[in-house]
Each structure stands twice: as structure tokens, then as C-alpha cells.
Amino acid sequence: MATTATVIANFTPMAIVDADAALIESARRGDTEAFTELVNRHYQSSLKLARSILRDFEDAEDEVQNAFTKVYLHLSRFEGNSRFSTWLSRIVVNQCLMRLRKARRARFAYLDDPGSEDGNVRMELADGAETPEQSLGRGEVEALLRREVNCIPPLLREPLLLRETMRLSLTDVAKRLNITEAAAKSRLLRARRELKTRLARHQGSRGPATLLA
Q1: Less crowded by CB within 10 Å, the N or C end of the chain?
Q2: Is residue 32 included in any domain, yes or no?
């Protein structure tokens, strides 16, 4: 009869079976449809997680979008030591926590005022929150921008996302793409021209000040 020690010594951990493995491999090879399917599979669960932290639907949507942008840019770093959904959830949580920290740093409630009776006076701040119309407009412009960025060829889209979304320097963009700095600069300029041309089709009578979906 095998002893407990023998059983433990001969135990082989089961490999993690990830239902997203095939899609991940395809997305890594540049298959945008595979990445879109990954987004579709996990968007609602990610949004639910973000809402549970931020308690605001629009903030949650913003951070889920930011999380998927980071996933797109760093998919090559996913090593498969956990399920894709677990890795994605950590990114979503980190995005939400960063947003909460920024909100706390921006929150001011009182100013000292020796002339007031209790030594403090409440500081009246103008309401900086968006109106429903502004929120709707911002959402439409962001959706339009994402749509047009996704239409840019991957060769040009990648340096644009690295530069504008990740805020990497041109040198770091070149290193990430394994190309020369001159080539990275050229692709970035072409990507910006391409995006400008695409957005121009949606401009209203006041030019870049208005974008029409």
C-alpha cells in the first residue's frame, strides 16, 4: 500500500486548461477577429467587476476599455500560468484602483478660515461633473475614435497605440516593435495622418470641434 509521502512525491499537477487558449494564440499572431472574440467573451464579466469597485457605470466602462487596450498591447506577456480570465481580472482591478486613487487625490472639502466661527469654512466648488448631453457626446466621440483606430492597418496602429495610449517614448516604441527609431517615427506619422483623414470624414461644419458619428 502506497504511503502518503509516496503519493505526494508522485503527484503531477494538472495543467491549466484555458478555453481561450486558441483565441489567444491567434490574437498574438495579429488576428484581430480572435481578439474581438476575446473581448466579447469577457466584456460583461469585466464590466460587472469594474462596477462593483467604482459604483459608476460610465467610469467602469472607461476602465474596462483601458484594461482591454492594455491586454491588446501586452498579450505577448501572458504566459498561461493562470487562466486568461484571471489575468484580465487583475488588470481590470488595477485600472479601477488607479482611478479611485486619482479621484481621492483630487477631492478637497475645506479651507482654513480664521474669520469663521468654527475655524473652518466649506469651500464651494463649481460642479465639474458632465451634463448628460456632454457625457453622451463624449461617449459617441470615444466610440468613433476607437472604431477608426481599429480600421488603421496593424503595422501603423501598433506604434500609435504604444505612443498615445501607453505614453511610451519613441525610443521605447521602437524597442517594443523591434524596429529602428526612424522606422517607428515614420509609422507613427503615417498612422496620425491616416487617423486624421478618417476623422475628417466625420467633422461637422465647425471642423475638428465637432465629430459626427
Answers
A1: N
A2: yes
